[in-house]
């Protein structure tokens, strides 16, 4: 039986449409007879404040000690802010992705290593979003043992998080809310029955495996070997296998304009790399024999070939760009990449040609250049896209890890041994920063190696820097 105060809050939630009954399709695709939309609270500041007080009381009752609060982005940010302001607790904001410019931080606000942070969430089903936030903040050195949620849908989050070492405190439970609404005559017995049955059947929602695998500094990360064993896509398996065997996470970008020079670079850096990235369309003397020669070098030194074509057109056009013209890319490039911007059609077009040849595609989620126009929610949408095309998408190109799924490979360009930039907007970070702080698996290095006096020795140097940075995380 809930308190009179909570019963009246439930009643208000129902009246303003936060808790709805009917037929709904949840984010997971599941059909549900109940929906909770706490985003609406921002339109009712008095209610937001009342719930912030309930969050505070719940934590106080639990005897939880903490130094700072952090809301799960974005829906829980107003609630966390309200707790912070109302009760004078410092707050940090978790970014969903690192900024592509400036400080490139993933967390905004002042905090110190070892501080205790409480995670605030608006509504939980499996607890996956809380867990993602825990992983990220832990990687930044914060200590997290508890989280608090406004509305627990009672579909598995408490157990899932407990198994991962996090205690979840709930201000409200969905069944309690529903019973209160029934007692107040707001909903009928049939609705109560339907929701109760739904919750009984769906009370063990799991955190999707790709979200449950840890990937950050303070926790053990999976080795390339372990990741190879988890992969379904043969090309991803092969790349992780090469990385493990050759002890390298280096991809050289051989941006030169003649075939002979490119083949020379491939031969020189071959022993040190897992992937060779090229731009076939800048080769002035590209000819039909070149791909065969390149494939021979790739076979000799055991690396894969990545044509950085950055497809960005409609499905029909990219299919032709991939298979026709003088480059016939699909015949020789193990990996290609594309901008997900045009929507699913681009992958459908590329897949038509690529899948039967065992090829793989990287999605460009973020760019390394200053002032790029990639919107904040683009990486998230890209990750979603990848999830639906696992038969062809093998990973991402970006500046931070989008999802901690161990079966996707994260490539990061814009790498040099010293942080710097070029005169055309390219921005460089070090191998250590990319791998240890941003979750890169493979570093892409171009001019840092190709313009060096001794490209072979320099490639060996980058290889060591990259692999050491990865090894320190294990
Ligand atoms: O965001 C990006 C994506 C890519 S693929 N930024 C990039 O620089 N790249 C590519 O990485 C770019 O096309 C080039 O081939 C390489 C970086 O080369 P560097 O000489 O600046 O290291």
Automatic annotation (TrEMBL):
Xref: SUPFAM superfamilies: PRTase-like (SSF53271), Ribulose-phoshate binding barrel (SSF51366)
UniProt entry tagged with the keyword Transmembrane helix: no
Transferase found in the keyword field: yes
Protein name: Uridine 5'-monophosphate synthase
Annotated Gene3D superfamilies: 3.40.50.2020, Aldolase class I (3.20.20.70)
Keywords recorded for this protein, A-Z: Decarboxylase, Glycosyltransferase, Lyase, Multifunctional enzyme, Pyrimidine biosynthesis, Transferase
Xref: HAMAP family: PyrE (MF_01208)
A Pfam entry, by short name: Pribosyltran
């Amino acid at each position: 039986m809930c308190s009179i105060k909570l019963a009246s809050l439930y009643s208000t939630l129902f009246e303003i449409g936060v808790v709805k009954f009917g037929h709904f399709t949840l984010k997971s695709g599941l059909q549900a007879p109940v929906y909770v939309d706490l985003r609406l609270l921002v339109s009712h500041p008095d209610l937001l404040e009342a719930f912030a007080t309930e969050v505070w009381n719940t934590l106080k009752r639990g005897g939880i000690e903490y130094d700072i609060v952090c809301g799960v982005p974005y829906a829980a940010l107003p609630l966390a802010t309200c707790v912070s302001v109302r009760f004078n607790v410092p707050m940090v904001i978790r970014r969903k992705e690192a900024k592509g410019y400036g400080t490139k931080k993933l967390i905004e606000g002042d905090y110190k290593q070892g501080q205790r942070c409480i995670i605030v969430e608006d509504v939980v089903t499996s607890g996956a979003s809380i867990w993602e936030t825990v992983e990220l903040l832990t990687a930044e050195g914060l200590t997290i043992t508890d989280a608090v949620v406004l509305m627990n849908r009672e579909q598995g989050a408490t157990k899932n998080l407990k198994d991962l070492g996090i205690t979840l405190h709930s201000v409200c439970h969905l069944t309690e809310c529903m019973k209160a609404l029934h007692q107040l005559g707001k909903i009928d017995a049939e609705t109560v029955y339907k929701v109760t049955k739904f919750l009984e059947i769906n009370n063990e929602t799991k955190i999707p495996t790709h979200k449950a695998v840890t990937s950050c500094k303070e926790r053990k990360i999976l080795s390339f070997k372990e990741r190879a064993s988890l992969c379904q896509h043969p090309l991803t398996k092969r790349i992780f296998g090469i990385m493990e065997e050759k002890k390298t996470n280096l991809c050289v970008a051989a941006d030169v304009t003649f075939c002979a020079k490119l083949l020379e670079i491939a031969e020189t850096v071959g022993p040190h790399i897992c992937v060779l990235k090229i731009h076939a369309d800048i080769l002035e003397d590209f000819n039909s024999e070149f791909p065969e020669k390149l494939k021979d070098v790739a076979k000799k030194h055991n690396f894969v070939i990545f044509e950085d074509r950055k497809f960005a057109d409609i499905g029909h056009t990219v299919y032709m760009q991939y298979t026709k013209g003088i480059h016939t890319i699909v015949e020789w490039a193990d990996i290609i990449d594309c901008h997900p911007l045009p929507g699913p059609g681009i992958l459908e077009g590329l897949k038509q040609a690529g899948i039967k040849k065992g090829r793989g595609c990287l999605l460009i989620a973020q760019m390394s250049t200053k002032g790029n126009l990639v919107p904040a929610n683009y990486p998230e949408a890209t990750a979603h896209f990848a999830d639906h095309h696992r038969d062809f998408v093998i990973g991402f190109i970006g500046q931070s890890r989008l999802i901690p799924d161990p079966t996707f490979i994260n490539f990061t360009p814009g790498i040099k041994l010293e942080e710097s930039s070029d005169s055309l907007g390219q921005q460089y970070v070090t191998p250590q920063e990319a791998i240890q702080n941003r979750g890169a698996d493979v570093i892409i290095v171009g001019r840092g190696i190709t313009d060096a006096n001794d490209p072979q020795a320099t490639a060996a140097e980058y290889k060591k820097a990259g692999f050491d940075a990865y090894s320190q995380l294990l």
